[in-house]
Please model this.
Amino acid sequence: MPSMTAMLLVMAAAALFCRVAGYLAMRFLPPSARLDAALKATPLAVMAGITAQALAAGGMVEALALGAAVGLSLLTRNDVGAAIAGVAVAAGLRWLGL
Model:
């Protein structure tokens, strides 16, 4: 099983690649609705990959934290706040001994 450091490095490299690809796409491709939709969906795809790894390696705590983050994201439309709240839910559940 890969180490946490290796996984973080791979995820950081994927996020950086997505950012650079977005800048290059905006420089060399003509703007269109399809390109705009693809660029907006890329961060969601990266986050889905990160959360899928956490769910595969984790258990109930991770599932509850992800559910809280998704629910808050839908309610508040604030992805960063929802992600922080999801981490807080996971930390709180771990603190309670789950």
Notes: The mean pLDDT is 81. Residues 55 and 62 are 6 Å apart (CA to CA). Helices lie at 4-28, 33-57, 60-76, 79-95.
